[in-house]
Amino acid sequence: MTQTEEDVSGDEKSVGEHRKGRVQKKDQVASVGPAYIPPAVLPTVRHESGIRFDFNCGARILLPDCEAGEWCLTIKDLDTGNIVFTYQTKGGFVTSSKRYYNRFQLEVSKSDEEGNLYSVFLHDYDCTKKIVIIQLPIGTLGDTLAWFPYVARFAESHQASVVCTMAGSLIELLEDQYPDIRLVTPEDAIAAGLVANAYATYTIGLFFDDADHQYQPTDFRHVGLHKTAAYILGVKPDEVRPLVFSDEESTPFIDEPYICIAAQASTQCKYWNNPSGWTSVVRWAQQHGYRVICIDKAHYYGSGIVWNYIPHGAEDQTGDRPLKERVRWLRHAKAFVGLSSGLSWLAWACAVPVVMISGFTHPTNEFENPYRVVNWHACNSCWNDPEFQFDHRNFL
Question: What is the C-alpha separation between 141 and 319, in angstroms, rounded?
Answer without folding.
Answer: 15
